[in-house]
Design brief:
Length: 125
């Protein structure tokens, strides 16, 4: 069984920063891409960013380019999401997910097989 556990969410003022972590366990992940998604109340889950397990390739949604940075420490089976210049519109539950490495890096939610439980990020005005 694959398990993904997110942490690091919280309440932050607009313009502030947070760093989310996602620890993967239960199997090796060398053949996976890792992604972050978010879902605001009443909204569909949306793609935020993704990274290859090696860390060599990244991809970002236009809404977070220049503000968010995804990284991976594959020796610790941990993916990070550094979020800077946060906006109230970034408020959502953030989910870590894993997809087959055969998928394109910008594959949407339907392409991801394994999901964490999510961590709440709230950005106040």
């Amino acid at each position: 069984q694959v398990q993904l556990v997110e942490s690091g969410g919280g309440l932050v003022q607009a313009g502030g920063s947070l760093r989310l972590s996602c620890v993967a366990s239960g199997r090796t992940f060398t053949s996976y891409n890792m992604g972050w998604f978010r879902q605001a109340p009443g909204k569909e889950r949306e793609f935020v960013t993704a990274i290859t397990w090696s860390g060599g390739i990244t991809y970002y949604a236009d809404s977070v380019k220049g503000r968010f940075t995804i990284s991976i420490d594959n020796t610790k089976n941990t993916v990070y999401l550094q979020m800077d210049s946060l906006k109230p519109d970034d408020t959502a539950v953030y989910y870590c997910a894993a997809a087959s490495s055969t998928m394109p890096l910008d594959v949407g939610v339907r392409g991801y097989r394994y999901w964490g439980q999510g961590t709440q990020v709230t950005v106040s005005s």
